[in-house]
Amino acid sequence: MAGYRRYHARIVPLLSASVDMSADPLLGLNISAVERETGLSKELLRIWERRYGFPLPARDAQGDRVYPSEQVEKLRLVRRLLDRGLRPSKIVRSEVAELARLLESMGNGDKHGQSAADIDPLIRSLTSRDLGELQRHLQGELVVRGLRDFVAEYMPRANTRIGEAWFSGEIGAWQEHCYVEQIGQTVRMATNALNQPLAPPRVLLTTPAGEQHGLGLLMVEAMLRMQSCQTWSLGVSLPLDDIVMAATEFGCDIIALSLSASFPQREAAELAAVLRQRLPRAISLWLGGAGVAGLKRLPEGVVRIDRLVEIAPAVNAWRAGRP
């Protein structure tokens, strides 16, 4: 229950603060995109709409369904609970808080077994020395899971397992580099294929000087693009002066920095304080990654993103706070 309380306190208020997307259908997803992202068929979505009164999509100028992001988020929770054996009639009408509690309580028991089942084929594809097999495996995982779960759930576990395999000598450095390049290409292609209208916030993504890990940055960008955010990635290891200059020149709304576990925690705290002081107040500063996980106190105007799934609620909260 303690884990649920922390999850509930952090996530649910942000979900509840979601902007009313029905007023601007361009900020939602059409039914085909919802089917692709949740794995729930178009027909099933229509049946639930009639039977349970959820989801309740808006309509665009052509009369087609457009689903607000907060409804898509709930549908993803519902889908994951369906995969764990719950029936639609028991959960579709439930509030997001209840769904989150159920998912957290049901997810803890099989986490490690699921990880092994999912990730071991990835290691085998790398050790087979067949680049085509690796590409097919990653594409298969993407198709089965959808882009959101692929990025938010599969990739963190895959990244950890690859790091462990390299450290133990199970794979070589060239295989680790191959994985990073191929999974990066897979995510970029899927993100570029989203082809949805973009809207604020305008987010500038980078890592601070000395931080060379860029895969986390790509994952954050994919999650933002799935929320129809406008994004500009400046790559890795950008000096602080250049971050401030780029933020003002681009006129961005948010600077998102990714820091890995290898980034010194004291430097991360100093970076947050200095950067917040130098940025215009209108620009929000978001920090994410293992390098900021232990920071207990952050300056006002700095948002810490502990998990990728927190990005969508954070975007909704930002939008809800704007006129």
UniProtKB/TrEMBL annotation:
<keyword id="KW-0238">DNA-binding</keyword>
<dbReference type="GO" id="GO:0046872">
    <property type="term" value="F:metal ion binding"/>
</dbReference>
<feature type="domain" description="HTH merR-type">
    <location>
        <begin position="28"/>
        <end position="105"/>
    </location>
</feature>
<protein>
    <submittedName>
        <fullName>MerR family transcriptional regulator</fullName>
    </submittedName>
</protein>
<dbReference type="Pfam" id="PF02310">
    <property type="entry name" value="B12-binding"/>
</dbReference>
<dbReference type="Pfam" id="PF13411">
    <property type="entry name" value="MerR_1"/>
</dbReference>
<feature type="domain" description="B12-binding">
    <location>
        <begin position="200"/>
        <end position="323"/>
    </location>
</feature>
<dbReference type="InterPro" id="IPR006158">
    <property type="entry name" value="Cobalamin-bd"/>
</dbReference>
<dbReference type="InterPro" id="IPR009061">
    <property type="entry name" value="DNA-bd_dom_put_sf"/>
</dbReference>
<dbReference type="InterPro" id="IPR036594">
    <property type="entry name" value="Meth_synthase_dom"/>
</dbReference>
<dbReference type="InterPro" id="IPR036724">
    <property type="entry name" value="Cobalamin-bd_sf"/>
</dbReference>
<dbReference type="InterPro" id="IPR000551">
    <property type="entry name" value="MerR-type_HTH_dom"/>
</dbReference>
<dbReference type="GO" id="GO:0031419">
    <property type="term" value="F:cobalamin binding"/>
</dbReference>
<dbReference type="GO" id="GO:0003677">
    <property type="term" value="F:DNA binding"/>
</dbReference>
<dbReference type="GO" id="GO:0003700">
    <property type="term" value="F:DNA-binding transcription factor activity"/>
</dbReference>
<dbReference type="InterPro" id="IPR047057">
    <property type="entry name" value="MerR_fam"/>
</dbReference>
